[in-house]
Amino acid sequence: MKAAYYEKFGDLNQIKVGELDKPEPTEGEVLIKVKAAGVNPVDAAVARGMLKDAIPAEFPVIPGWDVAGVIEDRGYSARRFSKGDKVYAYARRPKIKHGTFAEYISIPESYVAKCPDKLSMDEAGGVPLTGLTAYQSIFDAGKLKGGETIMILGASGGVGSIAIQLANWKGATVIGVAGSSNQDYMKDLGADYTIDYSKGDVGEAVDDIAPDGIDMIFHCSRGDSLAQSHNRLKEGGRLISITNSDPKRRDDVHFQYVFVEPNATQLEHLSELADSDALKVPVSKTFKLDDAQKALQEIESLHTRGKTVIKP
After folding, report:
1. Strand duo 149-153 + 214-219: pairing
2. Region 261-287: what's the mean pLDDT?
3. Does the structure show a pLDDT above 80 at 266?
4. Which of 38, 138, 270, 287 has a C-alpha 20 to 30 A away from that of 261?
5. Can you tell me whether residue 256 is helix, strand or coil?
6. With b meaning 16 or more CB within 10 Å and e meaning fewer, what string describes 288-304?
7. What is the fold, at CATH topology level, of the domain defined by 130-257?
8. What is the pLDDT of residues 199-220, one digit of tens each?
9. pLDDT at 142
10. Which of 140, 154, 137, 152 is closest to 214 using CA atoms?
11. Paired strand residues for 79
């Protein structure tokens, strides 16, 4: 099969595209013909070796943890899906080796859920990692409730775009923080208020919107926004981050760092939300498999809007 791959950690310009062995589904696994693979900042971080002490790797490594595609074959005891079913999954395994930037991937059937009917393959391919990250951060870790106020830092990116919609669906008041070009974009996704971090201190802007403070900050960006705004959390407020494992915070603030885990049940819920029009997936750019290196270089900038997808 054709795949993007690298043979050592390092610069992104070492990403190659060529022929590798097509995987075979083992017991409990399904073989998926990849139709779309979401591109995420963590894919670039993995390729640079930034997670090598946390997750073991075996070279050559095919990058990519997001997949939407069609069931092509099934291993022994894998019977939840039939050949031809449209499915999607967050495909991270305990060892980094077989990723989704390829024509095929074989993964445990337990990772897989039925694709949302109302999303295209490109859109579905952008859901798993970002959707599960947002879901596990604001619901599992953050315990967000209706009527609360959440501020999302980096709200125009892949994770933030879904987090706005999930928080909106839950009935929370949503404050989205991003650059000037993304203010209308965040409002279109359902943000009640938006803050342009380039226009001044984010904390002062929060004071104008929520003078009594906010219940939760979901931190999925880099830069100074968190340092400017973390003191606006109410006493006992929650700070959930996917980019900083130990940010500065008050002692009374509940903090949790989230690194997303595969969860097919939550993917099924995301499918239900998409099919009820509560969740849309803005795909801003698509790349061919031959351009995987360029896709990773662009996503690494952390200034992309919505989702970037590779189509093998």
Report:
1. parallel
2. 96
3. yes
4. 287
5. strand
6. ebebbbebbebbbeeeb
7. Rossmann fold (3.40.50)
8. 999 999 999 999 999 999 999 9
9. 98
10. 152
11. none
Sorted by where each begins, the domain ranges of the chain are 2-127+282-311, 130-257
Alpha-carbon span 176 to 196, nearest angstrom: 9
Topology given in CATH for the domain delimited by 2-127+282-311:
Quinone Oxidoreductase; Chain A, domain 1 (3.90.180)
Element (H, E) at 254: strand 254-257
Residue of 158, 169, 141, 150 whose CA lies nearest to 273: 169
The alpha carbon dihedral of 180, 186, 187, 188 has a sign of positive
> If you compute the radius of gyration of the chain from its CA atoms, what whole number of angstroms results?
19
Answer whether 2-127+282-311 and 130-257 agree in fold. Answer: no
The one-letter amino acid at 221: S
Chain center to CA of 269: 16
Q: Which residues contact 79 (CB under 8 A, 6 or more apart)?
A: none
Q: Burial, 306: exposed, middle or buried (Cβ in 10 Å; 0-12, 13-18, 19+)? A: buried
pLDDT tens-place string over residues 21-35: 999 999 999 999 999
Task: Give residues with Cβ within 8 angstroms of 207, minimum separation 6.
Answer: 232
Collapse the DSSP code of 293 into the 3-class scheme (helix H, G, I; strand E, B; otherwise coil) and give the result. Answer: helix
Q: What is the C-alpha separation between 241 and 219, in angstroms, rounded?
A: 4
The residue type at 185: Y
